[in-house]
């Protein structure tokens, strides 16, 4: 590319439109926002009025008390991520958005499973709990509450294992995510 | 000082010389401060009138408009102007009163969740939770409203907080870490755009309201005339390029000229400046300008590739970018003769499809002729403020706007009732100019109460009602697309606008004869004070040409 005055015309055929409509994968957006009332409503409203579905959402404090972090996941097969992030950027209270690359990111989710556990089922469940490196956090004669943390897939795998035993209740926090390496997310 | 007195100081520091509003319980402290603040306050008759007046003021002057309303119904009456302002990117700061903090959330008298109700339609809003926040919030609000892509900002102030005693210190700097609009425009992209334009054989410049907002009309004209680029503008962009220039194709879109729409359809390169590819422009999206590549210049990155994928996106201020683009383009010394064939084609369309209508054979006034007569009577120099409907489209087609901020209307939201109050605001902002409101017998009645405001304050707007006794645009659609089933569009001869003008303290006229119309309009404009002219026009006249909803531009009818 030359300075002004270089008479190199551009053939229009070479131009490609830069637009990524649907990426077809899950996106983890890590959003730093000003820690003020109403910010979450603005973000949620932005998704809702465009018919975009938020898969998971977690909100919490950061090392800076003025700033909160929202981690949310969106299905890029259903929604144009490009529009989502651009619209988010327009919110005055949104400080920074990162669409985290799956390869360079550590993600974790916490889940609690309340499972029916009577008779032989109990020992089998305890065994699974061990394999998944979970913890039993509550016990009654007829049930167990098991805590599992890890990546989304692992939680889903445990859910599939526990379900046949009688899954009374399940709670998942939604993913949190952090970029690998020394730099800030 | 009281927090409300600090509000007045902040307004003065922002250079506000006039506000529009209506007092009520929750903003009584604010109005006490207005009593001797030395800021002009125009008392409107309905909060929607105040909101639209602030918009009209902003659109006519380029400054930030300001409107005040009380809590509850006062605030909900502002919802339409706020929505209108976000759609057309109008810089307005809205101040609403709120119930006392101890009553918040209790369904207190005149309580409404103003912040919640308006959240999807503001650029930003502030719920004041401590009186000390007020000065900074106000300056941030003005900064946000006027910068980047302009828009409405709302400040909601609980009554008790507004009475608090605070130490006021002027706020010198506003810094918002999460808000830093891109202004400059990427130089590499600009160069890329210049090269593409120099290579294009069938280019069109498609300019929108962003050109007006960025005060970039001069730069647009200089750039377009640096070569023989054909120019078309959206409804919001009219006046951004001279409507009498030989390179002007006319407005594009649903009721644009055939020449402009066909040029878009046949173009190999479209340079969009401050325009957003609205459905009223593109028609059927999949068949919109299929042969074209797109340069898209916009200050709002979210507009780029929203509806139509951009090949060369440039984010930034149009004034800035067009000036740089001109330098880059000149340096390329493109050969203007490459556009010869394109202009032969354009001139052929122009000759074959001029804007036109069949005139009446008697004295009946055709609505299109009313606009032509107004153009003649005003020498093309008036500020034209329009309402919404057929009259709006005819005004856009037949009044040739040569200057920016000469054409003020509600484009995105299409708000009937916008015209009179917006005209009032425009006149307040530009007291030396002739301000004419073109409206319909439907639209005018949606905010006609502001005639009283005009009469009381001697705001001399000249209102011309294109009276066909119908909700004309709806009637046209029922005729064309609903098998002539005119369902609830006939407004008859009600009200008697002459008597109404008289009752409001305005001068009333009724014009029925086309042969004297130009002179009639001249004498109406020469009449001091506000004027309400009831102009009887052909009852069933359709706005043509037209891209039917969902159709492609090349299939224009009429």
Mean pLDDT of chain B: 97
Number of strands of chain B: 18
Poorly predicted runs of chain A are: none
Output the number of helix runs of chain A. 4
Radius of gyration of chain A: 22 Å
Distance between the termini of chain B: 64 Å
Could you give the distance between the termini of chain A?
33 Å
Q: State the order of secondary-structure elements of chain A, H for helix, E for strand.
A: EHEEHEEHEEHEE
Query: Main β-sheet of chain A: number of strands, strand sense, barrel status?
Result: 5 strands, antiparallel
Taking strands numbered 1, 2, ... along the chain, how are they ordered across the largest sheet of chain B? 2-1-3-4-6-5
Which percent range fits the helix content of chain B? 25-40%
Percent helix of chain A: 10-25%
Output the structural class of chain B: alpha/beta
Overall pLDDT level of chain A:
90
- Oligomeric state of this protein: heterodimer
- Quickly give the structural class of chain A: alpha+beta
- Beta-strand residue percentage of chain A: 35-45%
Shape of chain A: elongated
Number of helices, counting only DSSP H or I runs of 4 residues or more of chain B: 22
Q: What is the CA-atom radius of gyration of chain B, in angstroms?
A: 24 Å
Global morphology of chain B? globular
Walk me through what this model shows.
The complex is a heterodimer of chains A (185) and B (558). Chain A has 185 residues and is α+β, with helices and mostly antiparallel strands. Chain A has helices at residues 39-48, 81-90, 120-131, 152-162; strands at residues 26-34, 54-61, 67-75, 94-100, 105-116, 135-139, 143-150, 167-172, 176-179. In chain A, the strands form two sheets. In chain A, strands 5, 6, 7, 8 and 9 form a five-stranded antiparallel β-sheet that branches. Chain A has a four-stranded antiparallel β-sheet with strand order 2-3-1-4, covered by helices on one side. In chain A, strand 2 (54-61) and strand 3 (67-75) form a beta hairpin. Chain A is elongated and about 85 Å long. Chain B has 558 residues and is an alpha/beta fold. Chain B has helices at residues 3-13, 28-34, 47-61, 73-76, 79-87, 114-118, 134-146, 159-162, 187-199, 209-213, 217-226, 258-266, 279-282, 318-332, 340-352, 367-378, 390-398, 419-429, 450-456, 472-481, 497-504, 517-526, and strands at 18-21, 40-43, 65-69, 92-98, 124-127, 152-158, 203-207, 231-233, 248-251, 269-273, 293-298, 312-315, 383-386, 407-408, 435-440, 462-467, 507-511, 531-536. Chain B is globular, with a radius of gyration of 24 Å.
């Amino acid at each position: 590319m030359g300075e002004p005055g270089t008479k190199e015309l551009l053939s229009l055929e070479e131009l490609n439109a830069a637009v990524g409509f649907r990426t077809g994968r899950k996106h983890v957006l890590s959003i730093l926002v000003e820690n003020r009332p109403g910010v979450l409503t603005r973000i949620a409203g932005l998704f809702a009025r465009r018919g975009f579905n938020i898969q998971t959402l977690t909100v919490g404090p950061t090392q800076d008390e003025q700033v909160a972090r929202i981690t949310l996941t969106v299905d890029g097969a259903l929604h144009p991520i490009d529009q989502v992030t651009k619209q988010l950027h327009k919110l005055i209270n949104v400080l920074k958005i990162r669409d985290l690359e799956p390869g360079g990111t550590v993600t974790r989710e916490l889940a609690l499973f309340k499972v029916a556990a009577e008779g032989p089922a109990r020992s089998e469940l305890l065994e699974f709990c061990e394999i998944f490196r979970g913890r039993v956090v509550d016990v009654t004669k007829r049930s167990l509450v098991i805590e599992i943390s890890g990546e989304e897939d692992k939680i889903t795998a445990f859910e599939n294992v526990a379900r046949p035993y009688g899954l009374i209740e399940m709670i998942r926090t939604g993913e949190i995510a952090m970029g690998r390496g020394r730099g800030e997310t | 000082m009281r927090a409300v007195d600090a509000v007045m100081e902040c307004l003065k520091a922002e250079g506000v010389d006039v506000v529009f509003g209506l007092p009520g319980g929750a903003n009584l402290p604010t109005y006490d401060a207005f009593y001797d603040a030395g800021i002009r306050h125009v008392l409107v008759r309905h909060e929607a009138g105040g909101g639209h007046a602030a918009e009209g003021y902003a659109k006519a002057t380029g400054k930030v408009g300001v409107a005040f309303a009380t809590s509850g119904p006062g605030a909900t009456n502002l919802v339409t102007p706020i929505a209108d302002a976000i759609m057309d990117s109008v810089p307005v700061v809205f101040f609403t009163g709120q119930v006392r903090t101890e009553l918040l959330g209790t369904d207190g008298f005149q309580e409404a969740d103003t912040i919640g109700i308006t959240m999807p339609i503001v650029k930003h809003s502030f719920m004041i939770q401590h009186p000390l926040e007020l000065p900074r919030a106000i300056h941030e609000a003005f900064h946000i409203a006027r910068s980047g892509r302009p828009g409405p900002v709302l400040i909601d102030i609980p009554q008790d907080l507004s009475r608090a005693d605070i130490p006021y210190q002027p706020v010198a700097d506003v810094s918002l870490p999460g808000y830093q609009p891109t202004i400059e425009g990427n130089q590499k992209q600009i160069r890329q755009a210049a090269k593409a334009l120099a290579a294009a054989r069938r280019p069109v410049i498609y300019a929108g309201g962003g050109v007006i907002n960025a005060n970039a009309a001069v730069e647009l004209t200089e750039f377009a005339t640096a070569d023989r680029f054909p120019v078309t503008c959206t409804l919001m962009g009219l006046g951004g390029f001279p409507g009498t220039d030989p390179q002007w194709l006319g407005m594009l879109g649903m009721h644009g000229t055939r020449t402009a729409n066909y040029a878009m359809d046949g173009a190999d390169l479209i340079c969009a400046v401050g325009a957003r590819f609205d459905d009223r422009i593109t028609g059927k999206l999949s068949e919109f300008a299929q042969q074209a590549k797109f340069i898209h210049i916009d200050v709002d990155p979210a507009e780029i590739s929203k509806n139509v994928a951009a090949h060369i996106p440039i984010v930034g201020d149009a004034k800035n970018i067009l000036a740089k683009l001109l330098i880059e383009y000149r340096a390329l010394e493109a050969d203007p003769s490459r556009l010869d064939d394109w202009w032969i084609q354009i001139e052929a369309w122009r000759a074959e499809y001029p804007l036109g209508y069949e005139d009446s054979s008697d004295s009946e006034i055709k609505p299109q002729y009313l606009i032509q007569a107004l153009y003649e009577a005003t020498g093309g120099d008036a500020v034209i403020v329009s309402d919404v409907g057929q009259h709006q489209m005819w005004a856009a087609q037949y009044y040739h706007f040569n200057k920016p901020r000469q054409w003020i209307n509600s484009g995105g939201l299409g708000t009937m009732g916008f015209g009179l109050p917006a005209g009032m605001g425009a006149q307040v902002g530009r007291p030396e100019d002739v301000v004419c409101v073109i409206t319909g017998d439907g639209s005018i009645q949606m905010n006609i109460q502001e005639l009283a405001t005009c009469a009381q304050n001697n705001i001399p707007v000249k209102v011309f009602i294109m009276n066909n006794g119908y909700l004309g645009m709806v009637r046209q659609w029922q005729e064309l697309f609903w098998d002539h089933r005119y369902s609830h569009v006939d407004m008859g001869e009600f009200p008697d606008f002459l008597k109404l003008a008289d009752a409001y303290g305005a001068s009333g006229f009724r014009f029925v004869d086309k042969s004297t119309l130009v002179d009639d309009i001249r004498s109406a404009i020469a009449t001091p004070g506000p004027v309400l002219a009831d102009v009887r026009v052909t009852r069933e006249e359709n706005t043509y040409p037209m891209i039917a909803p969902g159709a492609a531009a090349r299939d224009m009818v009429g």
